[in-house]
Amino acid sequence: LTQLNQIQELISLGVDFLGFIFYEKSPRFVLNYLSLEEIKLIQHQGKVGVFVNETVDKILEISENAGLNLLQLHGDEDENFVFKLMQRLSKDVKIIKVFRIGETFSFQLSIFNPNVDYFLFDTDSQSFGGTGQTFDWNILNNLEIPKPYFLSGGISLENIDELLNFVKVNLHENKTLTKLNPQKPLTLDINSKFEIEAGVKDLEKIRLLMDKI
């Protein structure tokens, strides 16, 4: 998100999380549009800062000055980095670790389990997100997912019925696994398919999506 007026409209619609990208190579780099002070003044309990291979010191500085509630680590951060960040982070700020999924997925989620609050699964790309492409959701069926998770990657009005059906079928077929492997996503992370241009959202599309969900 980059536009204060849109942020207020989305808050009024009842969105759960607001994403702010702190990655300078992104066309949605929020500090090109808003100051840390402006972000801090936004009254919402789900302000997410998105970081890609940033230093611990810089993440902590931005988190404090922008009043962030969650940190989304979207780069190649390993379990040691996440542990160091968690050790210095306010207990009120939660960590989301992103995993990028291509044709297969081989990460051991359990090594991150003690130090993160949520996982996020996105489509693999060289540019750290923003592909507008989905991955094969069935890959999630082969994972033990011990944390609530965000689902991202090319979610759109065109495929939302298929996605909701996937979630419904998996809940029905995996009733005995739901405690260990909660196949229902905590939330859907939407971005490029709901934009007029980078950082400018199509609010009507977002309303239609929320109605469908």
What does this structure look like?
- The protein has about 210 residues and is an alpha/beta fold.
- It is built from 6 helices and 9 strands.
- The protein has helices at about 5-15, 35-40, 55-65, 80-90, 160-175, 205-210, and strands spanning about 20, 45-50, 70-75, 95-100, 120-125, 150, 185-190, 195, 200.
- The protein is globular and about 45 Å long.
Q: What is the percent of helical residues?
A: 25-40%
Instruction: Spell out the helices and strands N to C.
Output: HEHEHEHEEEHEEEH
Sheet-strand content, in percent, reads 15-25%
Lateral strand order in the biggest sheet: 1-2-3-4-5-6-7
Q: Label the overall shape.
A: globular
Given helix and strand content, the structural type is alpha/beta
Total number of helices: 6
Distance between the termini: 21 Å
Q: Which residues sit in consecutive blocks of at least 5 with pLDDT less than 50?
A: 176-180
Instruction: Write down the overall mean pLDDT.
Output: 90
Largest sheet: 7 strands, parallel
Radius of gyration: 17 Å
Strand runs, count: 9
Short description:
With 213 residues, this protein is an alpha/beta fold. The protein has helices at residues 4-13, 36-41, 56-66, 79-88, 160-173, 203-212; strands at 18-21, 47-51, 70-73, 94-101, 118-123, 149-151, 187-188, 195-197, 200-201. The protein is 29% helix and 17% strand.
